[in-house]
């Protein structure tokens, strides 16, 4: 009898356990933090949805404090979430909205803009900007390429707070030792490849270039070959002849061992520890490299090598206003605090993002003087095209990266892998 | 205590108290498990728009589309691979470690090693995975460096489709064998020392003592650990997510990872729900098979 009871209990326990284990765990739970105080019930409330590090959360809180000086009886709640995928960010936004906590002011990545607009989550800002002197003055200062990224069908939905791009960094000492001239803006893929081959050491201690198989980092290769993952009318175009050519070029570097394994390598650490002669990156690596002891004598940057046309990629983030905000005037005031010169400066001084206006991005006090050509970063922004971010961004990113991994791991030929990815994305984009 | 039935009778009061104690966990179960499972079941027959909340009944379309998708088939194959190797690996290694610290190592060091082996279960996987990623790097990784010293060529742990699952298996065993060890250790404490000594005097060697005495006595715990590891491996997610992200390609992607991708990247809740129902059925079948199988090898005292 006792034995049977034990078995029944064990069975029940296992049953419960099985169910609770099937419930898929969510990873993002309490990483977010909410700033709030309950003292001031009855006040008008605004909600801010932000993303990034605790440093970025602090900068936004400072801006909120400045907003509160002028509007003392408004309570602002900031939710700042770490972002590892933009689909998750949109998901978070939807969750807030459906639980009656729709955010009024949102910091949105370029990647998610079309997704948010097509789901009717954002308010167009054109009318607001045109009647406001400060904002229209600011708008003229932004790089126009940058405003395009946050516009859909000619309507502007966000005011940029920072941007990011890609330039090619190279190790000067290694170029000197190999007897090569430093690369110059407008150099070609062929020149790049022959340099990279000459800089690669046979014993594997130095590779000519560090290729990184990630979405943003790969994009300059597409734009300098005059192509993109989507057409101008937002249709997937992964298997265009130009795309195949670019992927074949990258694959040949992997096969020839000019680059370390693009899937597992940490290329930025390798560049800092002088295992790579060249690597592509934006501004975000500079602080780490300076801390690692790299100086103006060690490295510099140059625009991306060109095959069909000069170009690069830019991404970035912008402050937007939620479609269904109940306090439009206050939200506009808060938005202005978020893109005020003080806030933009503070963001830029963090050293991660490139400031969105020319005056800040070409200011030595903010951008520093390492490397010599640090102003080349702003030039890259002005010639760059926005990162491909259609409404089906999540699927496009996943399929592209899977396809690249299949090519780099030698499972598939570029044409075959890109054809598969194209049909996958088409199936989801319809 | 009255009457013919010698089974102890509990008073109404006591029964009520007992039920009251189960209420909190029961409410949690209903709210966070049962209702979501029912909701997932309903959604699996519908096309659901996350943004508007509207949904249309589509019958078995979701099931048809996932069953004809080569990606779900490969995710299913990978999941079965993980289920077999991770559960056997975790339970086996847990058993070996448990015997090691219980029996073989001297008492004083065994306390230390018990903590050492259990330690990986306590640390946050997300952080440790970064370290493992750098161990597994093809060109600059520590593991390949030592393999190289042994004269073995570079292995693309995270960039070769044949090895990515092995890398996940290694991380998963490193992380989870400690819990298995701890639970089996509790079972080993039940083993009567006198029994072992008697067997030794009768001439039983170490292997005979292990298979004829230790395993049968500890079998309920081993069985429990096995069930836990099998269900855990069927829904393996974290170890893959942080290490290989499912790649390269789809070579290390499990069913749960595919569910998360369909649901939260493609916002295709219908297909994600249909996949979840398939996974639930799979887990149910495997668990029933294990329970039936256990009749032959698990001994309750």
UniProtKB/TrEMBL annotation, chain A:
Single GO molecular function = maltose binding
May I ask which residue range the UniProt record assigns to the signal sequence? 1-23
> Any idea which UniProt keywords this protein has?
Signal, Sugar transport, Transport
Question: Which Gene3D superfamilies does this entry report, sorted A to Z?
Answer: Periplasmic binding protein-like II (3.40.190.10)
- Tell me the GO BP annotations in alphabetical order: maltodextrin transmembrane transport; maltose transport
Segments of skewed composition (Polar residues): 417-430
- Gene Ontology cellular component? ATP-binding cassette (ABC) transporter complex, substrate-binding subunit-containing
Question: Region (Disordered) spans which residues?
Answer: 410-430
Residues passing through the membrane, by range: none
Domain of life from the UniProt record: Bacteria
- List the Pfam families hit by this protein, alphabetically: SBP_bac_8
Give the record's family classification: Belongs to the bacterial solute-binding protein 1 family.
Output this protein's name: Multiple sugar transport system substrate-binding protein
Native species of this protein? Anaerobium acetethylicum
Automatic annotation (TrEMBL), chain B:
* Membrane protein topology class: Multi-pass membrane protein
Instruction: Using the record's annotation, list all stretches that form the ABC transmembrane type-1 domain.
Output: 76-290
- Top-level taxon of the source organism: Bacteria
Stored PROSITE patterns:
ABC_TM1
Where is it mainly found? membrane
- GO terms for cellular component: plasma membrane
The subcellular location is: Cell membrane
Extract the Pfam families matched here: BPD_transp_1
Q: Where are the transmembrane segments?
A: 20-42, 80-100, 112-132, 166-188, 209-228, 274-298
Entry keywords, A to Z: Cell membrane, Membrane, Sugar transport, Transmembrane, Transmembrane helix, Transport
Give one GO biological process term: transmembrane transport
Indicate whether Transport appears among the record's keywords.
yes
Task: Give the UniProt family note.
Answer: Belongs to the binding-protein-dependent transport system permease family.
What this protein is called in its record is: Multiple sugar transport system permease protein
Q: Which organism is it from?
A: Anaerobium acetethylicum
């Amino acid at each position: 009898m006792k034995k049977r009871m034990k078995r029944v209990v064990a069975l029940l326990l296992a049953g419960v356990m099985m169910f609770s284990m099937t419930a898929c765990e969510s990873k993002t739970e309490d990483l977010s933090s909410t700033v709030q105080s309950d003292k001031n019930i009855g006040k008008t409330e605004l909600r801010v949805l932000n993303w990034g590090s605790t440093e970025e959360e602090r900068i936004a809180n400072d801006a909120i404090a400045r907003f509160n000086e002028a509007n003392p009886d408004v309570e602002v709640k900031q939710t700042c979430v770490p972002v590892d995928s933009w689909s998750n960010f949109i998901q978070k936004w939807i969750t807030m909205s459906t639980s009656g906590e729709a955010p009024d002011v949102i910091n949105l990545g370029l990647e998610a803009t079309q997704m948010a607009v097509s789901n009717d989550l954002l308010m167009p800002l054109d009318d607001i900007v045109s009647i406001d002197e400060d904002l229209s003055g600011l708008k003229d200062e932004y790089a126009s390429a940058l405003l395009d990224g946050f516009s859909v069908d000619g309507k502007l939905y966000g005011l940029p707070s920072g941007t990011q791009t890609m330039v090619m960094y190279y190790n000067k000492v290694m170029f000197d030792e190999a007897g090569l001239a430093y690369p110059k803006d407008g150099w070609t893929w062929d020149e790049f490849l022959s340099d990279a081959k000459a800089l690669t050491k046979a014993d594997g201690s130095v590779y000519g270039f560090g290729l990184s198989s990630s979405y943003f980092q790969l994009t300059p290769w597409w734009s300098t070959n005059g192509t993109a993952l989507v057409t101008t009318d937002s249709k997937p175009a992964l298997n265009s002849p130009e795309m195949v050519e670019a992927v074949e070029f990258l694959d040949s570097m992997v096969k020839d061992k000019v680059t370390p394994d693009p899937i597992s390598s940490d290329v930025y650490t390798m560049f800092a520890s002088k295992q790579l002669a060249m690597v592509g990156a934006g501004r975000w690596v500079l602080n780490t490299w300076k801390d690692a002891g790299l100086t103006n004598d060690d490295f510099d940057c140059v625009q991306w090598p060109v095959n069909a046309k000069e170009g690069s990629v830019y991404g970035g983030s912008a402050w937007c206003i939620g479609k269904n905000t109940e306090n439009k005037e206050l939200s506009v005031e808060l938005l202005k605090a978020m893109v005020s010169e003080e806030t933009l400066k503070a963001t830029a001084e963090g050293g991660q993002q490139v400031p969105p206006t020319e005056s800040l991005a070409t200011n030595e006090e903010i951008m520093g003087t390492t490397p010599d050509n640090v102003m080349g970063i702003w030039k890259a922004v002005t010639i760059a095209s926005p990162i491909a971010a259609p409404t089906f961004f999540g699927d496009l990113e996943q399929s592209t990266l899977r396809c690249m991994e299949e090519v780099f791991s030698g499972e598939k030929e570029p044409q075959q892998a890109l054809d598969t990815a194209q049909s996958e994305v088409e199936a989801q984009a319809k | 205590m009255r009457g013919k039935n010698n089974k102890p009778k509990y008073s109404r009061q006591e029964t009520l108290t007992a039920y009251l104690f189960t209420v909190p966990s029961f409410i949690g179960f209903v709210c966070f498990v049962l209702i979501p499972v029912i909701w997932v079941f309903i959604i699996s027959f519908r096309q659901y728009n996350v943004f508007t909340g509207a949904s249309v009944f589509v019958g078995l379309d979701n099931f048809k589309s996932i069953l004809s998708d080569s990606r779900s088939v490969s995710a299913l194959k990978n999941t079965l691979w993980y289920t077999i190797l991770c559960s056997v690996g975790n339970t086996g290694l847990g058993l070996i470690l448990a015997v090691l610290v219980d029996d073989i190592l001297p008492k004083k060091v065994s306390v230390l090693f018990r903590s050492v082996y259990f330690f990986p279960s306590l640390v946050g996987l997300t952080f440790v995975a970064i370290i493992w990623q750098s161990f597994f790097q093809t060109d600059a990784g520590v593991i390949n460096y030592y393999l190289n010293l042994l004269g073995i060529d570079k292995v693309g742990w995270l960039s070769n489709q044949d090895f990515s699952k092995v890398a996940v298996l290694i991380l998963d065993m490193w992380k989870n064998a400690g819990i298995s060890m701890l639970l089996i250790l509790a079972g080993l404490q039940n083993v009567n020392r006198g029994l072992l000594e008697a067997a030794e005097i009768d001439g039983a060697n170490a292997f005979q003592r292990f298979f004829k005495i230790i395993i049968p006595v500890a079998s309920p715990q081993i069985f429990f650990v096995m069930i836990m590891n099998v269900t855990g491996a069927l829904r393996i997610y974290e170890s893959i997510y942080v290490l290989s992200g499912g790649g390269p390609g789809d070579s290390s992607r499990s069913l749960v990872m595919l569910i998360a991708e369909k649901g939260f990247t493609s916002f295709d809740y219908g297909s994600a729900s249909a996949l979840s129902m398939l996974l639930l059925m799979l887990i149910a079948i495997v668990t029933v098979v294990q329970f039936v199988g256990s009749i032959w090898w698990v001994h309750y005292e």
